[in-house]
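>> Question from a student workshop board

For tomorrow's exercise we were told to take the sequence and the ligand below, predict the bound structure, and bring the output to class. My setup keeps failing. Could a helper post the expected result so I can at least see what it should look like? The ligand is copper (II) ion.
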Amino acid sequence: MKKCEPCEPHEGKIMRTISLFLANLFITTALLAQAKPADAPHDMEHMQHGGFMQGGMHHAIAKGVKLEQKIDGHTIVVRIGPMNLPAHTSHMKMPQPPDLEWQVPIDGWLLAYSPKLVDANGTAVPGRVLHHSAFWNENRADFLCPNKEEHIFGAGGELTNWAEVPGYGYRVQMGDKIRVETMVHNPTDSSYDNVYLEVTIPYQSAADGAKTKSVYPTWMDVKSCGNSGYDLPAGNSEQTGTVIVKYSGVLLGVGGHMHDYAKQLTLLDATRKETVATLDAKVDDHGELLSMPTVLFLDQGGYKFAAGDVLKISATYDNRSGKLLRDGAMGIVVGYFVPVDDSAMDALRRNPASHHMAGMSHDQ
Ligand SMILES: [Cu+2]
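>> Workshop helper replied:
Here is what the output should look like for this input. Compare the format with yours to find the bug.
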């Protein structure tokens, strides 16, 4: 059994810094939880089941948290709650919602994701109390790392939107099973009761015959296809990984995800010996991450990848805390990929692995 990894260095800091920017749109955000290996034995699944800060930790499970959805016009609202959040409660002390399952109610494309927190009266609750939430499509494998499920949406305390990229969407089929991992905490002075996380998801129905093109979320990680988090040594350091693109297509644009003390994230097409993007982190005087830039390739019709291209991802940090930060770093270039032959991506569909959903304890 995997032991609890300390994650205090992360608390309240990481999630709001996670940003993926695409097109000339708004900020898109992504929480990077790591997936379990698809073919892991069942016990393995359990210990790796949670998000990158959740896996193997010993949380009490919040009772009575449910996932509900409603369709309103061309919008689905997924609602998770109620959650009671006493003031000054760390994510370790807070009872956490179990993993919940969202069954996609439409055949078509999900176009955007807009999260918010409200109480039972519909009054806004500060986003800070959301540690993170991540949506995983159990019916699909990640196209770069098929050992992981496709990570389709994530958010932290910043609650920023994954805005619509006009003409593009994420293809789903009726009944697709999306696993929703949510972790909450409350660093504020106020207690909040009966809190709901609502994610508003506009969609395009396949029956409407629109010429929506499918995009695939693309996570290019310095840890290659392994767990995203790694120990950050004091001082300057660099971590490098590679992934192979097995499909020809274009990358529309990229943003990046790093943690505090970040310096730079780079993406190279090693096969073409070309730098795809260089993302300089913006940090404050204390090294706290403020933002990561976005690079778009829309003017050139996207950055072209050929099947078999080797991508090299590098992350540099300058950890000025003077000590090693356990699980303190990540380096992920995040973008949207449009394959030349979308039908080739059908091979990534699969039957979901069996999970114990609602009521599952993370410390099992
Ligand atoms: Cu991270």
